[in-house]
Amino acid sequence: MILSKSPLMETCECQVCNSMDPITLHNFPHRGAFALLCTACVLRHNPGSFCPLCFDVYDDTAKNKRSAAHSHIVCIRCPAVVHAACLPSTRSFPSFRYLCPQCSLPSFSFFDLGRSDGGSTTVFTRDLAKQLLCAAKIASLAMHQAAAVARTVAEQKVREALLARQRAKEALERVAHLMADQQREDESDVDDGSSGE
């Protein structure tokens, strides 16, 4: 599949690597803020969220949670987790030490786009499409988690505001009561003063 860039979309860029390919940008919570990250940066910064060989996303919120630990292998240098079934059968599991593609190849890059027509079109291979979908799923899960946290914080703020409102109402009632008592005392003092004459 070949996609052409829209001139209007070229104003966006990845806020980590400054990539300016708007087709591959994802809204993503990054360093305490929402940012646009390219597919490569989403995958590079979330190595434990997907299998780097088949690009299947590990969604701990879904019913299909990671199966037993023996079916996954963690890279010895980073938190990348690969399905044991995705590894070539020539390796004897679990006696070998696994290095993910990012750690084993210094020049490795996720989502390495092939360009044609002088860079004006993007050629998507099946592997690139899997990577793009994987990054989109990771970004979606991260945004859902951020929304859940924001919802919890908002609900807490509402509870705090209601409590503050109740306290303010009680304080106003106390002030009104004290003012009424003070007025009665003042009237009593005035009555006492006039009756003494």
Description:
There is one protein chain. β6 and β7 form a beta hairpin. The N and C termini lie far apart (105 Å). The protein has one domain (2-150). It is of the alpha+beta class and 197 residues long. The protein has helices spanning 39-44, 101-104, 126-195, and strands at 2-4, 25-30, 33-38, 72-74, 81-83, 114-116, 121-123. The strands form three sheets. A three-stranded antiparallel sheet has the order 1-7-6, with no helix packed on it. Strands 2-3 form a two-stranded antiparallel ribbon. A two-stranded antiparallel ribbon has the order 4-5. The chain is built from three helices and seven strands, in the order βββαββαββα. Mean pLDDT is 80; it is low at 1-10.
β-strand amount: 5-15%
- Could you state the order of secondary-structure elements as H and E? EEEHEEHEEH
Strands of the biggest beta sheet: in what spatial order? Answer: 1-7-6
Q: Number of DSSP helices?
A: 3
Mean pLDDT: 80
**Total strands:** 7
Approximate helicity band: 40-55%
User: How many domain regions?
Assistant: 1
Taking all Cα atoms into account, the compactness measure Rg is 31 Å
For the sheet with most strands, the description reads: 3 strands, antiparallel
Overall morphology: elongated
Poorly predicted segments: 1-10
- End-to-end Cα distance, whole Å, is 105 Å
Structural class computed from helices and strand pairing: alpha+beta
Question: SSE layout and pairings?
Answer:
Layout: E1 2-4, E2 25-30, E3 33-38, H1 39-44, E4 72-74, E5 81-83, H2 101-104, E6 114-116, E7 121-123, H3 126-195
Antiparallel strand pairs: 1-7, 2-3, 4-5, 6-7
